Amino acid sequence: MTMIQVTMEVNGKRVAQEVPPRMHLGDFLRDRVRLTGTHLGCEHGVCGACTVLVDGEPARSCIAFAAACEGRHITTIEGYDADPVMARLREAFNRHHALQCGYCTPGMLATARDIVLRLPEADESRVRVELSGNLCRCTGYMGIVAAVMSVLKQLREQPDEAVQALRAALQEGRAAAVAAPPAAAFQPFAAAQPATQQAAAPAPAAQAPSAGQGATSKGKGNGIQDAFEVPFPAQQVWAFMTDLPAVAGCLPGASIESHEGDRVKGKIAIKFGPMAAAFNGAARLERDDAALRAVFRGAGQDTLSQSRATGDITYWIEALSADTSRVGVDLQYTLQGPLAQFSRSGLVQDFVRRMIADFGRNVSARLARPGEAAPAQAQFNPVAMFFGVLWMRIKRWFGRR
Fold it and tell me: For the whole model, what pTM was predicted?
């Protein structure tokens, strides 16, 4: 077979080899240069897993011939150690859980770097369009989009001179080249700290949501804000909401196994369509009696799928009148493992809102019987929950029309 001499720069190092005329760049990088961080998926230029930088611009290495890259500068996932944009993206992908199996991640990062440099003012809609050429079968894209948006937001609020220089080079028609990596070995993704160990201040009272406000994202994964009203004075509601066994008795599917001060261990079991879970875990309550505000921080693991969940539930009591109060709820959570594929869907958001509404009704019922023995633990009814969520969606659909 006729061979062709090819010389190129890969991650700052000169590489010269003889290759078959039809050897693709992806195969050359993996088999000849031994840079296996470049992943080959569809090998038709569709999935984007093989994306690398050629002269600073994203390119599909599975459909580019190695011989066509004579004299080019190639950057693979192993070559970003000195790159200021990639340093931010790697941290953001970690923080927003933007990877699961990781197969698409090298290509996602290459494309995300291009977005950050080329489109500094991009909104979420534009980021989604730009990422549409990179397929992921694990995450649902929410974490990936959130990671890219967070880096764009950081750079708008605090410009970085090194990033600005790369953007200027791109605007002038020069390749946004990646600095040569240092001699040290490539550093993998570092494990993120659990949400329970991160400092998170409660949201200001001025941001208390009205009932059914919707989903949010505050950098810790997924979020839901909602509220419910109870026909009792604020101080009475607050006293109840800081009684952890009483609160657990109002949450369908929850049970407390041990309770010591503001710390509890227990379990919550849910089932909704294809999603079933029984989380065992621990939590602690941080309270501000003067502001009638508390943060419930917890973490647990599902005994069925081994999925892990961490989250903060911030709630506060607002007096609407002498005998009526509103309980605002801000839930921020992350889910890792097989169940993460369900955590970002609109259906799950509706499911959680319905649980909050049921919890509010149970709280009112318990407060109405202060002198009686505690009623039986609130039970989870999957059939009623399903039809409740379905009815909520029907009302919203017709309401829009």
Answer: 0.48
